[in-house]
Amino acid sequence: MKDYHFSATLPQDARDIIEKILKEYLSLKTETISIYKAQGKFAAKDYLSLNTSPPTDVAAMDGYAINAEQTFNTTDANPAIIENFKVVQTGESIEGFDAVVPFEEAQIENGRIKIFQSYYPRQNVRSKGEDVQKEQLLIKKGDLLTIFDKVYLKAGGYLEVKVYKMPKVAFLPTGEELVDIVEKEGQLVEFNSVIFNDLLQRYGFEVGILKPVENNLKKLTEKIKELLQEFDIVFVNAGSSKGDKDLTVEAISALGEVLVHGIAIKPGKPTIIGKVENKLVIGLPGFPVSMFFVLKEIFLKSFFKAYNLNPKEKSIFATLERRLSSDIGSEEYVRVSIKNIDGKNVAKILKRGASVISSLKRADGYITVPINVDLIEEGNLLEVKLI
Ligand SMILES: Nc1nc2c(c(=O)[nH]1)N[C@H]1C(S)=C(S)[C@@H](COP(=O)(O)OP(=O)(O)OC[C@H]3O[C@@H](n4cnc5c(N)ncnc54)[C@H](O)[C@@H]3O)O[C@H]1N2
Ligand code: MOO
User: Mind listing the UniProt keywords for this protein, alphabetically (predicted)?
Assistant: First the structure.
C-alpha cells in the first residue's frame, strides 16, 4: 500500500544534508572579470586597497588654500588680509596649507585676499586617506558584490575582480497540464520557472529552464538522468507530495537515493532531497509560495553556508499588527506587508495559503516563526526579511 505519511526532517538537518552533498562533489570554479560585469557575483578572494584615496589632502571646494591660523579672531569688523595662499580647484592638493576659503567667501584685493570670518584647520578639506587607506580590506572573500563594493574596488586600484563561477542548475517542471499559454480546459500556466529563474539568477547561477515533462515515471527518470550530464544540480518541480501522480520520489529512488522527503517547514513540507551519481537533486513542491521558501530558506541558505558566501540579505524590524498563531513542529514563513504608522514599521500579516502568488506579490518580506513557537503576541518587534 502507498504510504501517505510524511516524516519531517528538521530544517537545520535538511540544510546540513544539502551542504554535505554539495561539498562532496561540487567545488566552485573562479573567473576574473571586469568589475563592470560583476553585478550579482561573489568575490573569490580578499581585496586589499592598492591606493590611498584621496591620495593627499585636497580641497573640498573651489577657492583659496590658506593656513587657518591666519584667520583666527577674524570677524566682519576685523577682516584678515592674507598674502600667502594658493588658488585651488575642488580635488586639487592643498600641500603647504590646511584650510580652504571658498571663492564666494573672500574678496581679492591687489593680489591679496580679504576674508571676514575665521576658518578652522581642515575646513573644506578632504583629508588624505579619509575614504580608502592603502592595504585596507576593501572586499572580503565570499561577499556578494554590490554597486558600492565595486566602486570601492575601483577606487582601491582594481579594474577586474576574481569571482566564483556559480553552478549550472536545471529547473524541470512536471505535469502535462502545464503550458506557457492556456488554450484549452485543464491547462495551467507554468509560472514557477519565473520564480526560480529570478531567485537564482540574482546570485549568478547559470539557470536552465526545461519544458515540462509529463507525469510518467519512465520519462521523468530519463529526463533527470539526461539533465545530470549537463547540469550541476537538478531541481524537479511539483509531484513532490503523495498524490498518485506524484512521481518525483520514485524517479529519484530509481536513479539514486532519497535522503529526505518532508521537511518541518511551512509552507514547503513535501520537499525531497536526493543524491544521484553523487549530485544533488531536489524535488520542490508545486505550490509557488512553497517553492519560493524552499529555495530561499533551505537550498540557498545551505549553498551559501557550504561555500562561505555572504549574500548580504536585508531585513528590517517591525511591530506585529495582530497576534500570530503558528503550528508547533514547523518552522513557518509568514508573508507580511509593511506600513509606516506614526513613524513606526508595522507588519501586516498576509494570506497564508501556499498556492496564492498574490500574497507574495503584496509582501514586502516575511517573518520566520521558530519551530517551537505557537503564538506571537500583537505588538512584538520582529525581524522581517525583505523579499
Ligand atoms: N495528500 C496530501 N496532499 C498534499 C499534501 C500532503 O501532505 N498530503 N501536501 C500539500 C502541500 S503542503 C503541498 S506544498 C503540495 C505540493 O504539491 P506537489 O509538489 O505534489 O505538486 P503538484 O500536486 O504536482 O502541484 C500542485 C499545484 O502546484 C501548481 N504548479 C505545479 N507546478 C507548477 C508550475 N511549474 N507553475 C505553476 N504552477 C505549478 C499547480 O497549480 C498544481 O496544481 O501538495 C499538497 N497536497
Ligand atoms: O508545504 Mo505546503 O508547501 O504547506 O503548502
Answer: Magnesium, Metal-binding, Molybdenum, Molybdenum cofactor biosynthesis, Transferase
| Closest listed ligand to the CA of 197 | 1
* Ligand 1 pocket residues where CB is under 6 Å: 4, 6, 173, 175, 178, 188, 190-192, 237-243, 246, 267, 269-270, 285-288, 290, 354
171-191 pLDDT, tens per residue?
999 999 999 999 999 999 999
DSSP single-letter state for residue 144: B
For ligand 2, say whether the CB of 285 is within 6 Å of any of its atoms: yes
pLDDT class for 320, splitting at 50, 70, 90?
Answer: very high
**Which ipTM did the prediction report?**
0.96
The DSSP result for 263-330, as a single string, is BSEES-TT-EEEEETTEEEEEE-SSHHHHHHIIIIIIIHHHHHHTT-B----EEEEEESS-EE--TTS
Determine contact, residues 98/67, Cβ cutoff 8 Å: yes
Instruction: Pick one of 2.170.190.11, 2.60.40.1840, 3.40.50.300, 3.40.50.720 as the CATH number of 58-126.
Output: 2.170.190.11
Output the nine-digit C-alpha cell for 284. 520542490
Indicate the pTM of the whole model.
Answer: 0.91
Total residue length of the chain: 387
What CATH number has the domain spanning 11-28+167-307? 3.40.980.10
Q: Mind listing the pLDDT tens digit for each residue in 117-151? A: 999 999 999 999 998 999 999 999 999 999 999 99
How many Å apart are CA 182 and CA 126, to the nearest integer? 62
